[in-house]
Write a structure and sequence with these properties.
Blueprint: H1 13-26, E1 35-36, H2 38-45, H3 49-61, E2 65-68, E3 72-75, E4 78-79, H4 80-104, H5 107-125, H6 129-147, H7 150-169, H8 177-192, H9 196-207, H10 209-220, E5 225-226
Parallel strand pairs: 4-5
Antiparallel strand pairs: 1-3, 2-3
Helix pairs in contact: 1-3, 2-3, 4-6, 4-7, 4-8, 4-9, 5-6, 5-8, 6-7, 7-10, 8-9
Length: about 240
């Protein structure tokens, strides 16, 4: 990992540690198979081992860490099965969300999404994949915020734990930034036109981009991926 981020001691510690470690895992600063030590993480951030232990448990529940009693804690490989299942869930929910957003969005919501797309263009021009990734997450969250359905947003954010590492790994090679921006613009245009059908189709195309990138990435980074037990709805990946 990079140098330690200062924790806000007035705020709950566990969520902060979860976010720091999650981001490091997504950005491959903590690599699949790498061991993590409660003691070392606690010392790094100046906290006791208890909040670190709780963060490890939560990240294990999200499928990012494997906690083996008496053996240690490890970053898990990217499971092709879990990524494809998470994408399947995201498509079902986010297509419904974008349909509703196209019907419910107000001018402030449109302006927010337009701003995010504009900032993505700047990040792409600067070659800042990390910034682009953060803006991608904000783009999808802004659409969900228009609908104000917190349970759906929680499910999507949980599913992102599986897809985000692939999304980050794919930038900028497997999925060119210009292509992703064009897909976001198509979603935005449909929302602005208040066209739920077109918005849903554009979102579906965008979320299925990972199906094109995933095989290439699994071939390019074989040590990062677990390709066993591919689900029925994605059998082409089994070959």
């Amino acid at each position: 990992m990079n140098g330690p981020v200062a924790l806000k001691l007035a705020d709950p510690i566990v969520p902060q540690i979860i976010q720091i470690l999650r981001q490091a895992i997504i950005e491959m600063r903590l690599k699949p198979g790498e061991a993590l030590s409660e003691k070392e993480v606690a010392l790094r951030y100046g906290v006791s081992r208890q909040p670190v232990r709780e963060a490890f448990i939560k990240l294990a529940e999200a499928g990012l860490l494997q906690v083996l009693p008496s053996r240690g804690t490890y970053v898990v490989k990217i499971s092709v099965r879990e990524v494809l299942n998470a994408r399947f869930v995201r498509e079902a929910i986010e297509c419904a969300l974008v349909r509703s957003a196209a019907e419910l969005i107000d001018p402030a919501g449109v302006a927010r999404i337009e701003q995010l797309v504009a900032e993505q263009k700047l990040a792409a021009e600067a070659g800042d994949s990390s910034r682009f990734y953060a803006l991608d997450e904000a783009f999808h969250r802004a659409i969900a915020d228009c609908v104000e359905c917190d349970p759906a947003l929680r499910v999507v954010e949980s599913a992102r734990a599986q897809t985000d590492r692939v999304r980050y790994l794919s930038l900028p090679d497997a999925s060119p930034l210009a292509l992703l921006i064009a897909q976001h613009e198509a979603i935005l245009d449909a929302i602005k036109a208040r066209d739920p059908e077109r918005a849903e189709a554009a979102m579906r195309t965008h979320l299925r981009e990972i199906l094109s990138a995933l095989p290439r990435l699994a071939e390019r980074f074989p040590d990062v991926f677990d390709r066993s037990d591919v689900p029925p709805h994605a059998r082409p990946m089994a070959g």
